[in-house]
């Protein structure tokens, strides 16, 4: 099953034009394709579909995760564009200045223009190439 498949994240937007501005102005990405279904973006070699839906922003869990080689750099760039990061004080997960240090990973979360929660993660025990290899092996 799924021997010849592609995985794509799907994010709802209550206002597709506002979402398109966020993806362009904040994330620096433009759609690689747009059609009646929405806008398709390429992020880290994977597809992300942003489509119009009245249910945008209702998910209170992480909707998209982006692994990075430099969490501090990317957080600073996003903060410079007005992004605010979540702070959490939960059992087993506490952030300091928006960042959690977990076993083998540092992470942070923010909302897109539509209320979808996006996570940034930086592996601390493996390189990005090793992380890519693990993900590739998991799909093999």
TrEMBL record:
Record-linked InterPro entries: Glyas_Bleomycin-R_OHBP_Dase, Glyas_Fos-R_dOase_dom, VOC_core
Domain of life from the UniProt record: Bacteria
Ranges where the VOC domain occurs: 5-123
Protein name: VOC family protein
Phylogenetic classification of the source organism: Bacteria, Bacillati, Actinomycetota, Actinomycetes, Micrococcales
